[in-house]
Amino acid sequence: MTQLRWLAALAAVVVALVVQVSLFPHVAWHGVVPNLCLLVVVAAALTVEAPFALLLGFAAGLTLDLAPPADHVAGRWALAFTVAAFLAARVRQDQRPSALAVVGTVAAASFVASSLFALSGVLLQDPATSVVGLLEVVLVAVVWDVLLTPFVLPPLMRLFARLSPQWATT
Amino acid sequence: MGAFGGHDGRERRWTGLDRLESRNRPPRSLLVALVLASITMITLDVSGDGSSPLDPARRVVGEALGPAEAGVAAAVRPFTTVPAWFRSKGDLADQVRDLEASNAELRGQVELAGFDRNRLEQYDGLTTAAEDLGSALVPARVVALGSRQSQSFTVTIDAGSEAGIGPDMTVVNNDGLVGRVLRVTRSTATVLLVIDPDSTVGGRVGSSMEIGFVTGSGSLRQESGLDLRLVDDASVPARDDTVVTWGSTTGPYAPGVPIGTITEVYSSLREASQRAVVKPFVDFSALDVVGVMVPSGMQSDRAVIEADGSLR
């Protein structure tokens, strides 16, 4: 069951990544696209046990760091996603989370992940844009992620819940 | 757990929930381990100057995901033209008027710029006479774009080492300079756009032949695309002047590729130098077909456009 769950989760990450870099740039706002990989990680963190979500966050971030159009220092998204998964897993309650809680978690995780990525860039002296520019990008990314939540999170959470009966929250 | 021992006696019906809660508490040790792993990876990637130890991993992931990206891009392409069908006659009339205006403006520029152009041609003739510049173009399409959240401006194109592409080759489209190839896999290549803040291109002002460095400003807006700093502080670049690459035939950027026009000139008192804003010819938010400059006669898996315009 665990292997099946890993397979499903990694497949979801790969699909999310490919859609994120190949489809969404056509509808992007000033180049900011929804972070679908993060949505997969948050869905896992809200549904299955925390260690799995943390490892999935790390793996998804690493894939985003290494997949073709990326050219930043590898490990930055991995760090951001791991911390975001940790926070999302802490928020989780034992009832099925309400719609509002899901949206709030996604917004918080998106804000934390994008900000951590931006901060790591500042620390690594990446010649980035101004703080105002960074903040604008982070906030637009949060709006994008929240907009996509109703379409992406429910099916993913149902999938993860079905693949982990001992943690099923239905 | 000794401190929680009293729980069982006092509130029995919550014990199950408590255990559930504690079983799902995110393990800090795992968090610390994964964060340290990320930091190790960042350190490895930063310290490896020039060639990073993670390049093989990048290549493997690229080989695996590149074809998927190309496939999705090909599937999406028919739908990206849909908005164009819904344009009204008014829009089209507006566009015709705008194009006529810009056409007239361009014609005026060409007539006035004859002198400059002649000088440029002479210069190009001089520098390229010694070596045969004759490069060919490998056509390719953009299949994936890096997101703004990732703070770098890179794209994936659907031609790789099988098409004869290698690192540091110049990428152009029909408007001008797009960027250079960073790394290749078998079927895809990653291109660093010139608007990336990390990108620096040797540039030359068309009219004065002054050389300088063109840096990306990290913005997709075409007006604020690039920054030009001239090597000679005393010379002031003129507005509406064309900037071309200065480059060499061996370096990353081939010489004489148009980059953009100068829109604004600032003089910085603090640094005692001139800074000019260059508006790139290429619209980076709508990149599609690009060409990679390869040496003439290169073996490729697709039709190559030779220097004289013939297909091979």
Brief summary of the model shown:
By secondary structure, chain A is mainly α.
Q: Could you explain the architecture of this structure?
A:
The complex is a heterodimer of chains A (170) and B (312). By secondary structure, chain A is mostly helical. Chain A has helices at residues 2-22, 36-47, 50-66, 76-91, 99-123, 131-163. Helices cover 73% and strands 0% of the residues of chain A. By secondary structure, chain B is of the alpha+beta class. Chain B has seven helices and twelve strands. Chain B is globular, with a radius of gyration of 26 Å. Chains A and B meet through helix 1, helix 3, helix 4, helix 5 and helix 6 of A and helix 2, helix 3, helix 4, strand 1 and strand 2 of B.
Entry keywords:
heterodimer, A: 170 residues, mainly alpha, B: 312 residues, alpha+beta, six-stranded antiparallel barrel, 25% strand, globular, disordered N terminus
